[in-house]
Recover the amino acids of this structure.
């Protein structure tokens, strides 16, 4: 029973953290070009690792 309480508290804390993060990101001015470049760079790195088998 205590495990369910601990898991419920962890899920609740994660939910609150997610809501606060969303609220903060909505108020920020985000450079989406930089974010897209960063995500593309990481995806390209994983793709090249998968294709070449190195890294």
């Amino acid at each position: 029973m205590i495990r369910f309480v601990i898991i419920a508290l962890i899920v609740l804390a994660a939910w609150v953290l997610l809501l606060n993060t969303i609220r903060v990101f909505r108020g920020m001015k985000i450079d989406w070009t930089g974010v897209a470049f960063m995500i593309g760079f990481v995806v390209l790195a994983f793709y090249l690792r998968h294709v070449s088998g190195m890294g």
Observations:
- Residues 2-52 form one domain.
- The mean pLDDT is 91.
- The chain has one domain: 2-52.
- DSSP finds two helices and no strands in the chain.
